[in-house]
Design a protein that fits this description.
Blueprint (H helix, E strand, L loop, with lengths): L18 H7 L3 E13 L6 H7 L6 H6 L2 H20 L8 E9 L15 E12 L2 E11 L5 E2 L10 E9 L2 E5 L10
Parallel strand pairs: 1-4
Antiparallel strand pairs: 1-6, 2-3, 2-5, 3-4, 6-7
């Protein structure tokens, strides 16, 4: 009635995991692969109940892996993958493959939910992939860690630090990095 539109979205999914990679992919021809990936330090995420009870941080690996997080994220991130598949014209399997991994603390790690003790979940990775045959053509990955120290496996953000990253394989192939959206631990 008011000639207005409201589009509720986030940065991932909603921007970095679908719209930005699609926008950047127009710089290439013959695109064969598209990747969007988040690298975030969740020690700045001041929502202890969500971190513990929804995301599974500070829990046992078995509980985290069987908890609600992957199923909750599937609907959101699968839409992003399907959007990329459709816009790029890939003849992908309609089923999107999802998976998750956990890292545990090897020493106490300070976090918004209190100290995460050795053996408790201190890192999560989630992956969503579209395949054509055996080849992954679109991949969206989320890397959420409680810092980079004292993790097993020893996951890190790498030298680029916290960021959102997009990769296009085509002519030319390239990677784009976005920094500045995530807070650093200790910042207000």
């Amino acid at each position: 009635e008011g000639d207005v539109t409201l589009h509720g979205t986030g940065i991932a999914p909603g921007g970095i995991s679908d719209k930005f990679p699609l926008m950047m992919s127009i710089m290439s021809t013959g695109v064969t692969f598209l990747r969007a990936e988040e690298f975030s330090d969740l020690r700045t995420y001041d929502a202890p109940d969500v971190l513990r009870h929804v995301m599974g941080f500070g829990d046992t690996p078995d509980k985290a892996l069987t908890g609600p997080m992957l199923k909750m994220q599937d609907g959101l991130f699968m839409q992003a993958v399907k959007m990329c598949v459709a816009k790029l014209g890939f003849n992908a399997d309609p089923r999107i493959r999802s998976s998750q991994e956990v890292a545990v603390a090897t020493a106490p790690i300070d976090s918004p939910l209190g100290p995460i003790q050795p053996g408790q979940v201190a890192g999560r990775k989630f992956h969503w992939e579209a395949l054509v045959g055996d080849d992954v053509v679109v991949r969206v990955t989320v890397n959420w860690f409680m810092g980079e120290e004292n993790l097993d496996p020893p996951w890190t953000f790498g030298p680029a630090g916290q960021r959102y990253e997009m990769e296009v394989k085509g002519n030319p192939s390239f990677t784009v990095t976005f920094k500045g959206f995530q807070s650093e631990p200790g910042e207000g």
